[in-house]
Write a structure and sequence with these properties.
This protein has about 475 residues and is mostly helical. The chain has 24 helices and five strands.
Length: about 475
């Protein structure tokens, strides 16, 4: 009992070091800005609104409106520095759900700890304060409820899937995953029944699949309770199939090619795949058909798009824990295994302290493009107002902190702005003539740029300097240019 307590404490320390890290995703600011408008006005914005260009009238599909409100309230009542704890406690909640699900399936402490920690590590490169984190929590919740029904036959577990689906559909675009999970359990139950009762195959399969099919329909109906109704499903489908996102946005790029290859997240993903292969080779006979189907479906998604690796990690808990039930029991009886696990967790802790989590963040530091305190102080001056031509990564925080006094050209909603607008703004950084025309047309008063974008083109623009553009502020992240004509 003492050894188990020590092992649990060491595992929690590992999860804390993985997830209790400062805010680093610029998408948080966009969500909080939208959430503030919903909270104060009682209405969901229907257009992009924030930009000073014609893009302000572009249609905006606020499918994550509930997450936006939550993020605004977190910042409003906790404050920026305390968002680290919100991020961390969400990580602990993920770990708790992962461990509980794994233990329910494997009935083994060591196996459950290994599976849940491996899933947390594989998903950690996506652990940001974004609506996606709620999607992962809902994934584990639906999986757990389906597993409970499969084990007990009690309908209350399937009925409980409906409110989870309702919250999911209003929080994150991954909500169709719930239907995929239900469909996989449905198909798995049919296969199991047909195998067990070959003489009455169709009837047995239909009866076994029926509860999950009803749960699927119930969740689908619950998902329709959202501000957009059935259009929400169309939006999710179009977003998943967007070729523009797959070529321009890092998180939508393939997992086995492009800039993701060679990163920490990539190597952790490779290690996780190795664990999956090793576990299934030893206990594949214990994996239910539904679990095998989920593994194949989400494994395929994870290989296609690196942002889906986190979902794959969570869904994999079901087949992995099931496969470990028999081998895990044998390992649990080995004193050497039980004694070595705390030592292994201590080594993991040392590595996290030395090198940071999967994206290099520590509890005291996380690389980000968030505004520095000096920039915030500079822009807090109410006399600074006007239109700001900004880098894509800086627009969301600019909108959250200073709209409408300062209006950005673009923020992190690339799905709203589209390829043409996105590429048009990006080209301005190296095309002086187009930039000067843009400035004149839209009466741009400031340019807020990341240093690499400034160095790539604007530093050498002589005509821009002659027009009166000067560096008004600079720090280690950004440079702010202001129009200061000579008198």
């Amino acid at each position: 009992m003492y050894l188990r307590a020590v092992t649990t404490a060491a595992a929690i320390v590992v999860v804390v070091l993985l997830t209790f890290v400062p805010l680093s995703s610029n998408d948080f600011w966009l969500q909080a800005a939208v959430g503030r408008m919903i909270w104060t006005n009682g209405e969901i914005p229907r257009t992009a609104l924030f930009p000073f260009t014609e893009a302000a009238d572009f249609p905006f599909f606020a499918h994550e409106w509930l997450s936006s409100v939550v993020f605004f309230l977190l910042d409003e009542y906790l404050g920026y520095d305390s968002l680290l704890f919100a991020k961390g406690f969400l990580g602990l909640a993920l770990f708790g759900l992962a461990f509980r699900l794994s233990y329910r399936l494997s009935a083994n402490f060591t196996a459950s700890l290994v599976v849940s920690l491996a899933a947390m590590a594989a998903a950690n490169y996506r652990h940001f304060l974004r609506p996606e984190i709620f999607g992962l929590l809902f994934t584990l919740s639906v999986l757990s409820l389906m597993v409970e029904f499969r084990a007990t036959g009690k309908w209350r577990y399937l009925v409980a899937c409906a409110p989870v689906a309702l919250l999911w559909a209003n929080s994150h675009g991954s909500f169709p995953v719930a239907l995929v999970i239900a469909a996989s359990f449905c198909a798995g139950a049919a296969v199991e029944s047909i195998t067990a009762a070959p003489s009455t195959r169709l009837r047995a399969g239909a009866l076994a699949a029926m509860p999950y099919l009803l749960a699927l329909l119930l969740m689908g109906l619950a998902m329709l309770i959202n501000p957009y109704g059935l259009r929400l499903f169309q939006f999710a489908w179009e977003l998943q199939g967007s070729g523009f996102l797959r070529t321009h946005i890092y998180e939508w790029m393939p997992s086995l090619s492009g800039p993701f290859v060679g990163s920490r997240g990539f190597w952790v993903f490779m290690a996780f795949l190795a664990l999956v292969a090793a576990t299934l080779s030893a206990g594949w006979r214990s994996v239910p058909p539904g679990g095998a189907l989920l593994l194949l479906l989400f494994g395929s998604l994870a290989l296609q798009t690196q942002r889906h690796i986190a979902l794959f990690a969570m869904v994999s808990i079901y087949p992995l824990a099931a496969a470990m039930r028999a081998p895990g029991a044998k390992l649990e009886r080995l004193a050497l295994i039980r004694a070595s696990l705390p030592a292994l967790l201590v080594l993991c802790t040392a590595a996290l302290v030395r090198y940071g989590n999967v994206y290099g963040a520590y509890p005291y530091f996380s690389e980000s493009r968030n505004f520095s305190p000096l920039l915030i102080e500079y822009l807090d001056d109410p006399l600074r107002h006007g239109n700001v031509l900004n880098s894509y990564a800086l627009g969301a925080e600019l909108a959250y902190r200073y709209y409408p006094r300062l209006r950005p050209a673009i923020d992190s909603r690339v799905d709203v702005y589209g390829k043409e607008y996105f590429e048009r703004l990006a080209a301005l950084h190296t095309d002086e003539q187009a930039l000067r025309q843009f400035i004149e047309r839209y009466r741009v008063g400031y340019m807020l740029l990341l240093w690499p974008e400034f160095e790539a083109g604007m530093r050498g623009m002589q005509r821009l300097r002659e027009d009166g553009w000067r560096i008004a502020f600079a720090d280690h992240k950004v440079v702010l240019l202001a129009w200061q004509p000579a008198f």
